[in-house]
Amino acid sequence: MPPPFAVLALFAALLPSGAAAQHDGHGPHPEHTPQRAAAGAGVMAGGVHEHGLAVLRVVLDGGALEIELATPLDTLVGFEHAPRTAAQRAALQVAERGLRDGAALFGLPEAAGCALMAVSLASPWLQSEDRADAGGAAHVQAGDGDHGELVAGYRFQCARPQALDALQLRLFELFPRLRAVRAEWASARGQGAAKLTRGQARLAL
């Protein structure tokens, strides 16, 4: 699949002309580059490393649906350092298995006919981390101190993208420490943003 954060380029391309540059009123955002993006969820969330929160970006380009998720590892497993015990290693393995099941994490309308094509995970402490390319641009470093983060990318191919009007996020069921998700989406129809919670986990597209 495209490297993690390739969805950022798609996201910017689908925004109205100048919208991305006006994000903060100071021109193009520096984190919209692979080098800055590879720092993980802290950058995607505007430089704030906040436990219990995640950032979700969804881009529909024709029949290709690209989804990216970024969050501190603490939100998923309760710690951000390298696993030190058997229980912590097991927690990482359980989280990784759950994150790789993109079809279960994202509820999509059956009418859209979407099939999961690829999954990519990047984090400093995963047992089996995906690298997007030979240069390892997608590799997420541990960062400052113990602020370990995870970035996950998902690619779906949808036979009838016109029927893709919503996404049901099931992350809250898998990760009880997750409190909220800042979601952004873009497609040829437009773009939008929403805050998703356990009680409101449906993202209208």
From TrEMBL:
Q: Which domain of life is it from?
A: Bacteria
State if Signal is listed as a keyword.
yes
Q: Where is the signal peptide?
A: 1-21
Does the record's keyword annotation contain Signal? yes
Q: Which Pfam families match?
A: ZrgA
Keywords, comma-separated and alphabetical: Signal
Where are the compositionally biased (Basic and acidic residues) regions? 23-34
Q: Give the region (Disordered) as residue ranges.
A: 20-41
- The protein in question is named Uncharacterized protein
